Amino acid sequence: MVEGGVGGLVLFGVAATATVVALTHGEELGSALEDGGRAARNFAVGIWAAVSDKQHEKVLNGLAANIETHLAWLGGSGPPGKDPNRWGDKWKKDIQKGLSEMRKRLDRLKSDSDREKWQKTIEQLEKRLQDAK
Amino acid sequence: MQNSVTQHIELTRAIDAWVQGLRSGDEDFAAQVSVDLADLLHAAGAVRTELQKLLSADLADPSSADDALQSAANIEVQLFTELKEHLESLAVLWPRVQDALQHSTERAK
Questions:
Q1: Cβ(A56)–Cβ(A105) under 8 Å?
Q2: CB-hemisphere CA count at 13 Å for B11?
Q3: CB-based contacts of A41, cutoff 8 Å, min separation 6
């Protein structure tokens, strides 16, 4: 109870001081807070962009590896004596969906050089899909 | 890789042949069921492998932590593209396999 009273007094003191400072240096304080807020926001956006790109690239790696696996299945598919494209058509659709996911991720990348790199990878995979039997 | 490709094709072929035996002449149905089932089993195996890598990662080591992030991304791809797509497709097709199996067992009586 006593601690709570002391705590309340301290809080009141801090609030009162802040009010006095705000009244006497209102414009400067507002400007400083705004600048600080903007800097903090830019810093956070910068970090988020970096983290985000890294995560997008990891998922792009995973999607590309999954497409490679499907291209390998496509290369080895075709039950003997049956239409060789019967399963191939299903895997081709899977690959197309994977490429579509890759394009969505590509659009979220902030770095131009990373976007260019992944655009080339997507184009190469698309070419291999077109050339697949 | 080539060995796992061969195994995957063999499993797909075995399921395909079994489903065709169950629903004679329905090649497209058999192809879809076999691809869905074989692919989702492959995806589940990949999730297990990546999970084992995640669990053994030393997150205090930057290189190992980076590998763990890749494993987590690979799990995302397998769960939310491969497994999800094939499960949703099988959810529609599998009851028809069970129906055909039931008819087959009733005919055998």
A1: yes
A2: 16
A3: none
* Residues A82 and B27: beta-carbon distance below 8 Å: yes
* Shortest Cα distance, chain A CAs vs residue B109, angstroms: 32
CA distance A98 to chain B (A): 8
pLDDT of the residue at A7:
44
Helix (H, G, I), strand (E, B) or coil at A74: helix
| CA atoms of A126 and A113, how far apart (whole Å) | 20
One-letter amino acid identity for B2?
Q
Range of the domain at B6: 2-108
- A111: region left, alpha or beta (phi > 0 left; psi from -120 to 50 alpha): beta
Mean pLDDT of chain B: 93
ipTM at complex level: 0.92
The DSSP result for B50-108, as a single string, is HHHHHHT--TTSHHHHHHHHHHHHHHHHIIIIIIHHHHHHHHHHHHHHHHHHHHHHHHH
Question: Does residue A16 register a pLDDT over 50?
Answer: no
Among A66, A77, A89, whose Cβ lies nearest the Cβ of B77?
A66
Say what angle helices A88-108 and A26-75 make with each other, to 10 degrees: 160
Domain count of the fold of chain B: 1
pTM for the predicted model, two decimal places: 0.75
How many residues are present in chain A? Answer: 133
What's the rounded Cα separation, in Å, for the pair A15 and A10?
A: 9
pLDDT digits (tens, 9 = 90+) for A18-63: 444 444 444 455 555 666 666 666 555 555 455 479 999 999 999 9
B23 backbone dihedrals φ, ψ, rounded to 5°: -125, 80
Inform me whether the C-beta atom of residue A58 falls under 8 Å from chain B C-beta atoms.
Answer: yes
